[in-house]
Amino acid sequence: MPEISYVIKYNLNQTVEEAYKALRANIQFCESSKKIKTIAITSYSPGEGKSTTSINLGISMAKAGMNVLYVDADIRKPMPFKYFMSSNLKGLTNYILGQATLEDVINKTDIDGFSFITCGIKVNNPGELITSNRFSNFIREVRELYDTVIIDTPPLGSVIDAAVVAAQVDGTIIVIEANAVKCQNAIRMKEQLIRANANILGVVLNKINKSEYKSYYGSYDYYNSQRKYLKKWSELIKDLKREQYD
């Protein structure tokens, strides 16, 4: 494993910090007989915030004393690392192709308990790598080494990769940008994950308009605003179902 500690840009305000703590706690509440150690995070389309959610959730877990590994598995469109810059060019694809060991691709950071694996070299057959036995072995191996492994996957509205990963991990989280994804597309994504036998832990509603959604510390209307959004989505789902049966 490289000796360099990479510096993480992690400056969240108190409200956002609390939101990630709540997300972390809700994941723990989902645990039953099987501990949730490997988590895939996806979205319907690019730009909804799945990578930001993945990294900040991982850091939040590390700050709570957990040993966390973040994996960029969006091989088709790797994340531009605005949080940290890695001089280690070897990543997930190098490991799957047998060009590097697991120790070669894991990078430590300046946050205790938080490590990451970049996407690695660009390949022409990303779908084949994700469905390979070596990728499955990778998930099993890192599951034994870390308390939590967060796998950042491609948007499910574009390619099937996220469903393939979701079928192999303990749980999956969907990130939805508020007022950006059609309700029928969100339902279609959920159904696709269910067909893959994925364990859907829940949905993160992201990028909510601040003028409509007041912070917990600024107003006690936090919960009323939350119910308003849940009611809005519930009504959309009911309308869609009525259209299907009419």
TrEMBL record:
GO terms for molecular function: ATP binding; non-membrane spanning protein tyrosine kinase activity. It comes from the Bacteria. CDD domains: BY-kinase. It catalyses: L-tyrosyl-[protein] + ATP = O-phospho-L-tyrosyl-[protein] + ADP + H(+). SUPFAM superfamilies: P-loop containing nucleoside triphosphate hydrolases. InterPro entries: AAA_dom (IPR025669), Bact_polysacc_biosynth/exp (IPR050445), P-loop_NTPase (IPR027417), Wzc-like_C (IPR005702). Residues 37-182 form the AAA domain. GO terms for cellular component: plasma membrane. Keywords: ATP-binding, Kinase, Nucleotide-binding, Transferase, Tyrosine-protein kinase. It holds the Pfam family AAA_31. Its EC number is 2.7.10.2. Belongs to the CpsD/CapB family. This is non-specific protein-tyrosine kinase. It comes from Acetivibrio clariflavus (strain DSM 19732 / NBRC 101661 / EBR45).
